[in-house]
Amino acid sequence: MNKVEHIGIAVKNLEKANLIYTQLLGIEPYKTEEVPSEQVITSFFRTGESKIELLAATDETSVIAQFILKKGEGMHHVAFAVDDIVVEMARLKQAGFTLLSETPKFGADNKLICFVHPKEANGVLIELCQERK
């Protein structure tokens, strides 16, 4: 794993959250994108080499909607950049981690993604991200 790619924050209302984070960070989001496969709409803020991803559900049955119902708004995941997601997935699986998908999926911000179950990472959902070529 190369670096923290972004921190994902689950929000109920993306417009309101965008205003809050624009004021907080002093910058506007550089991208808003819908990811139908994950039933979310996202906004990204870049601060230096770090990014914040705001995630709002587009369907009440989505993982983000269920997360907010259970835990409320807040930090959802920490994402790490990887060079080869398939190799990293195999390494983590071999080490005994539970992956939430068998193959990488298309995610926001031109990434291939895979999540590691939070029960094996001290309650933190971990996302692997590889830039799509």
UniProtKB/TrEMBL annotation:
Gene3D superfamilies: 2,3-Dihydroxybiphenyl 1,2-Dioxygenase, domain 1
The organism's place on the tree of life at top rank: Bacteria
Record keywords, A-Z: Isomerase, Metal-binding
One of the record's GO molecular function terms: methylmalonyl-CoA epimerase activity
Domain VOC: 3-131
InterPro entries: Glyas_Bleomycin-R_OHBP_Dase, MeMalonyl-CoA_epimerase, MMCE/EMCE_epimerase, VOC_core
Entries under Pfam families matching the protein: Glyoxalase_4 (PF13669)
Family named by the database record: Belongs to the methylmalonyl-CoA epimerase family.
GO biological process assignments: L-methylmalonyl-CoA metabolic process
Presence of the UniProt keyword Isomerase in the record: yes
SUPFAM superfamilies named in the record: Glyoxalase/Bleomycin resistance protein/Dihydroxybiphenyl dioxygenase (SSF54593)
EC number(s) on file: 5.1.99.1
Stated name of the protein: Methylmalonyl-CoA epimerase
PROSITE patterns: VOC (PS51819)
Enzyme class: isomerase
